[in-house]
Design goal:
Radius of gyration: 21 Å
Number of strands: 12
CATH superfamily of the largest domain: Type I PLP-dependent aspartate aminotransferase-like (Major domain)
Strand order of the largest sheet: 2-8-7-6-5-3-4
Distance between the termini: 61 Å
Strand content: 15-25%
Number of helices: 13
Shape: globular
Largest sheet: 7 strands, mixed
CATH class of the largest domain: Alpha Beta
Length: 352
C-alpha cells in the first residue's frame, strides 16, 4: 500500500493581488498588453452566442499544427503551460523517484514534485550564474523519473546548446526518464528545441501564450510530443480545460503574420534602452535571454523593491542566495522602461 499523501508538505505561495494600477514588471508579463486595434478586432467575435457554447479547440490545434509543422496528434492544449507541466507529472511522474532540475528554476517543479510524492533533485548554479552540465548529467540516474530543461531558464535566462540538451536527453533515455523541454520564453531567444521532439519518444516540449503573446490572463499553453505521449496526457485532461476566449485569442495571434514580430521588436528595443542606461551609469546587471534583466542594486534589493512599489512599480526579488542582491525587472516597451528607469535612478541616487 502506498504512503498516504501529506498535503501539509505542499507549500504554495500565491501571487499578490491588486496589481492592476501598477506598472507590472514582476511576473514577466507584457506590461502593456496586445495592440489595442488587434484587441478590438478579436473582441468583435465574442458574441453572446459565442460565449454560450462549450469551447471547441480544433481551430487552434489546426493553426498550431500549421505554424509549428507538427501533426495535430502531437499537440496537447492546456490552461497555461503550468497545467501541461502538472499533467506530465500526473501521467509520467513516479512516486518516490527523482525530478531533476537546475536551481533556481520555475518554482512549480518543486511544488509538483511534492504534490505527486516525488523527490526534487535541484542542481544549483555556481557563482557567476553558470550551469554545470556534468553535475546535471550525474544527477540523472536509475532513480530519476523526470528531467526538466528550461530554455531559456526562468528566472536567470541561461540557455543550453543543442549538443548539451542531446546529452541530457540521451542520459535520460538510458535510465528510462522523460524529459520536459520548457520553452515558456522561446520568443525571446532564437534557438528552439522543437526539432528534437520528433527525434525522441521520451521528450515533451511545453510553451505558453502568457509572455510575449500577452494573454497571461486567459491562461493558455500547449505541449508538443510524440502522439503516443500526447494520447496519455489527453486521458487526464478535463473535458473543457481551455476556455473559448483563450482559444480565440491564441488562434488570432497565430493567424496574424506581423503581430509576433512586432511584439518581439517592441520588447527588444525596450530591453536595449534599459541595458544602455545601466551601462552608462556603470550599474551591474545580468541579462542573458528572456524578457527580464537582473539589476545589482547599490542598496538592499528589498528596500529598492519597496520604494518602487510605493511609486506604483512592481519588480521581483528573491530569497535565493545567488539572486538576493538583485531586482529582476520585466522588460517591455521603451515607454515602460523609461518610466521604470526614471524612478529607479531617483531611488538609488537618494542617500546611496
Amino acid at each position: 500500500m502506498s504512503k498516504k499523501r501529506d498535503w501539509n508538505e505542499v507549500v504554495r505561495v500565491r501571487p499578490r493581488q491588486g496589481r492592476a494600477e501598477f506598472l507590472r514588471l514582476d511576473m514577466n508579463e507584457n506590461p502593456e498588453g496586445l495592440p489595442k486595434a488587434f484587441h478590438r478586432k478579436v473582441l468583435r467575435q465574442i458574441t453572446p452566442g459565442f460565449l454560450s457554447m462549450y469551447p471547441e479547440p480544433e481551430r487552434l490545434i489546426l493553426e498550431l499544427s500549421r505554424s509549428l509543422g507538427v501533426s495535430s496528434q502531437s499537440l496537447f492544449l492546456s490552461n497555461g503551460s503550468d497545467e501541461s507541466i502538472k499533467s506530465i507529472f500526473e501521467v509520467f511522474g513516479e512516486p518516490g523517484k527523482k525530478v531533476v532540475t537546475v536551481a533556481p528554476t520555475f518554482e512549480m517543479y518543486g511544488v509538483y514534485a511534492k504534490m505527486f510524492q516525488m523527490v526534487h533533485c535541484p542542481v544549483s548554479y555556481s557563482q557567476g550564474m553558470f550551469l554545470d552540465l556534468e553535475a546535471i548529467l550525474a544527477a540523472i540516474d536509475g532513480e530519476t523519473s523526470l528531467v526538466s530543461v528550461l530554455n531559456p531558464n526562468n528566472p536567470i535566462g541561461t540557455v543550453f546548446s543543442v549538443a548539451e540538451v542531446r546529452r541530457i536527453i540521451d542520459k535520460a533515455r538510458e535510465v528510462g526518464a522523460l524529459v520536459i523541454l520548457d520553452e515558456a520564453y522561446h520568443y525571446f531567444y532564437d534557438q528552439t528545441f522543437l526539432g528534437l521532439v520528433s527525434e525522441y519518444d521520451h521528450v515533451l516540449l511545453t510553451r505558453t501564450f502568457s509572455k510575449l503573446c500577452s494573454i497571461a490572463g486567459l491562461r493558455i499553453g500547449y505541449t508538443v510530443g510524440n502522439p503516443s505521449l500526447i494520447a496519455l496526457l489527453e486521458k487526464v485532461r478535463q473535458t473543457f480545460n481551455v476556455n473559448s476566449v483563450a482559444l480565440l485569442y491564441a488562434t488570432e495571434i497565430l493567424k496574424d503574420p506581423i503581430l509576433i514580430p512586432r511584439l518581439r521588436e517592441i520588447e527588444r528595443k525596450g530591453r536595449e534602452y534599459l541595458l544602455e542606461k545601466l551601462r552608462l551609469h556603470d550599474l551591474g546587471y545580468y541579462a542573458e535571454n528572456g524578457n527580464y534583466v537582473f539589476i545589482a542594486c547599490k542598496k538592499p534589493a528589498t528596500e529598492v523593491a519597496a520604494a518602487l512599489e510605493a511609486r506604483k512599480i512592481l519588480v521581483k526579488i528573491y530569497g535565493h542566495e545567488l539572486l538576493r542582491p538583485y531586482i529582476r525587472v520585466t522588460t517591455g516597451s521603451v515607454v515602460a522602461m523609461k518610466r521604470f528607469w526614471n524612478i529607479y535612478q531617483t531611488i538609488e541616487d537618494t542617500h546611496a
